[in-house]
Amino acid sequence: MTGRTLYEKIWEQHVVANFEGDDCLLYVDRHLVQEVSSPQAFAYLDQNDRPLRRPDLHIAVADHAVPTRRRGQPFADGLARQQVDRLRENVGKFGIAYMPMNGDRHGIVHVIGPETGFTLPGCTLVCGDSHTSTHGAFGCIAFGIGASECASVFATQTIRQTRQKTMRVNLEGGLAPGVTVKDVILALIAEIGTGGGVGYAIEYAGSTIRDLSMEARMTLCNMTIEAGSRVGMVAPDDTTFGYLKGRPLSPEGEMWDRAVAAWRDLRSDDDAVFDREITFDTSVLEPQVSWGTTPEQTGAISGTVPDPDQITDQGRAARMRKSLSYMGLTPGTRLNDIAVDRVFIGSCTNGRLEDLRAAAEVLKGRRVADRVKAIAVPGSAAVRIAAEAEGLHEVFLAAGFEWRDSGCSMCVAMNDDRLEEGERCASTSNRNFEGRQGKGGRTHLMSPQMAAAAAVTGRLSDVRELL
Amino acid sequence: MDKFTALTSIAAPLLENAIDTDIIFPARFLLLLDRDGLGKYAFNEWRGPGFVLDTPPYDTAQILVTGENFGTGSSREQAVWTLADKGIRCVIARSFGEIFYSNCFKNGVLPVRLTGADMDAVEAAAKAEVPVTVNLESKTVSLSDGTSIPFDVADHHRRNLLAGLDEVGMILTDHSDAIESFEARRSEATPWLNLPQAKLDALAKDGA
């Protein structure tokens, strides 16, 4: 018998029933509930008079719609307030633990899942949000689902799914100074395309992975969905266990030891066969920025805006022309000559403590360029509290950033934080889609260090020149 | 859920690749709590003169023909609800975003994957404004010149869509015992995956 991959091992442990082909009824260990994808799922329970099967396996928080400037301020948007109120009513009615908006545990679902210890190796975890792939950094099967599937998890604690093919991405060679895991995932998506991972569960392995912190691994898995794959994973190791030990919902005492012993077996066997395997040399990477309206339209900061006329694939060339028109860019422009109006540091991709530290390192003793408006939004209240304890907020404020409360903020523009028509933003978020950060807004994706550099110079910039 | 058996309609050609769910349903409308009446927001930023779904005869199309990776990006099921409410019951594409693909089946919308010359023929029919027939029973797309193109769809998706069945109801009817015995085994093998209510309560109260 050939060996099994990490994904296959966890999958097999969660099969409740087998259907035809690769279809299974899969048990769900963890469900993160937020305000956007849950109202219709709760309504399903009400309309069909069904109970919520296991309230203890869900936690809820409002993140997409909440304002990030809220202390002492009224909740200006009536629709957003209604949506948050609806979540609070629903979780009260169905008995789900809820992290209140101004509490110390508030935050983006994908930030608070790990930091509370709700996310654990070997589990299956779902959420009605595509960036649920983030949690795979802990060696679990985590994926985004739609509202109907949220209803299935509420009512049955299971979900009908087709087993994915497997792909291993070997990241080798480590990272040069000034280059981060965000640059790795952007460059990888540029190489394999936004459809490159469709149908596959991706496991990241290789020498670069071993030295990455949990926060960096989360950034990597977070953006796996942007490569078309719902699932990105890293096998758990001592870095994982070190991160989880002592978290509020982590197992304790003898149970902790038993869990760690089981988690140590969560790795792909040496003779496991992947349906696809690629190796990516990360040692040669430069800092990356996106120039288009999909994450695959990305290049090294030292490069120029590409020319669609030089592309032989006519479909791709047409898509590039449309992107460049939306982005207001001319082929041949040096990327580091592109001026920005706004800078956003935050999101479930790069709103963690390590990200804020890295940005602050660049900002220390510097000022945001005159015409740039910049905001820093911790991914959770716990991140904000920890950042303030080490004085990071003072660095941001002294540089001219606004320092906000936790939330999805300008990543998704369904709250008060959004770009105006035509504004150009250096963003640490995950999507540069048309209108993503506000109607007509133009997004350039990059690492927190690169966003900080752009804030200081007022244009896309190579952070290595500021280190 | 609405049944889907067969459908004959003009097919609207929206021949671009990687149309993401933010384009299909912009995020700011996610604040709306109800799923009915969302059709007017479909492709909101692209709507208006010159946009295919606003141009007769395509403004009444029930089939949408598009490129690669349709519905990539966010998991928002609103992307399907808005299309369904606008009257689109079938999307034919070269490939789909995965979450969008599975969301379609929960809402009476049939996603059909076609490639190569098959897709070229469907695109030509869409551009020529001639009706296309999609038949889920026979798993074929038929063109007016008599061409019949087979497509793949998972058996259970096909069965549920043909009958308009509620998948959750079926899981509870058929598998409640299996779920219960799974939970018993799980509590033995991985007890740390159960969360004590006291810990959850403490977390929810923390700093509130």
Outline:
The complex is a heterodimer of chains A (467) and B (208). By secondary structure, chain A is α/β, with parallel strands linked by helices. In chain A, 32% of the residues lie in helices and 17% in strands.
Q: Report the average pLDDT across residues of chain A.
A: 97
Identify the biggest protein-protein contact and residues per side. Answer: A-B, 91 and 66 residues
**Main beta-sheet annotation of chain B:** 4 strands, antiparallel
Oligomeric state of the chains present here = heterodimer
Structural class of chain A: alpha/beta
**Rg of chain A computed from alpha carbons, rounded to a whole number of angstroms:** 21 Å
Number of strands of chain A: 19
C-alpha Rg of chain B (nearest Å): 21 Å
Tell me, what's the shape of chain B?
Answer: globular
Describe the main β-sheet of chain A briefly: 5 strands, parallel
Which parts of chain A are unreliable, with pLDDT below 50 for 5 consecutive residues or more? none
The sequence of SSEs of chain B as H and E is EEHEHEHEHEEEHHH
Description:
The complex is a heterodimer of chains A (467) and B (208). Chain A is globular and about 55 Å long. Chain A is an alpha/beta fold and 467 residues long. Chain A is 32% helix and 17% strand. Chain A has a five-stranded parallel β-sheet with strand order 5-4-3-6-7, sandwiched between helices. In chain A, strands 17-16-15-18-19 form a five-stranded parallel β-sheet. In chain A, strands 11-10-9-12 form a four-stranded parallel β-sheet. Chain A is built from 16 helices and 19 strands. In chain A, a hairpin with a 7-residue loop joins strand 13 and strand 14 (298-300). The longest helix of chain A has 17 residues, at 78-94. Chain A has helices at 6-13, 39-47, 78-94, 109-116, 147-156, 181-192, 207-210, 214-222, 238-244, 253-263, 314-327, 347-350, 353-363, 381-389, 392-399, 448-457; strands at residues 15-18, 23-27, 30-33, 58-61, 97-99, 124-127, 141-144, 158-162, 165-172, 200-205, 231-234, 276-281, 288-290, 298-300, 342-345, 373-376, 402-403, 424-427, 442-445. The N and C termini of chain A lie far apart (52 Å). Chain B is an alpha/beta fold and 208 residues long. Helices cover 36% and strands 14% of the residues of chain B. Chain B has seven helices and eight strands; from the N terminus they run ββαβαβαβαβββααα. Chain B has helices spanning 21-24, 78-86, 98-105, 116-127, 155-163, 167-189, 197-205; strands spanning 6-9, 11-14, 63-66, 90-93, 110-113, 132-135, 140-142, 148-150. In chain B, the strands form two sheets. Chain B has a four-stranded antiparallel β-sheet with strand order 1-6-7-8. In chain B, strands 2-3-4-5 form a four-stranded parallel β-sheet. The longest helix of chain B has 23 residues, at 167-189. The model of chain B has no long low-confidence stretch (mean pLDDT 95). Classes of the chains: A alpha/beta (467), B alpha/beta (208). The interface between A and B is large, with 91 and 66 residues.
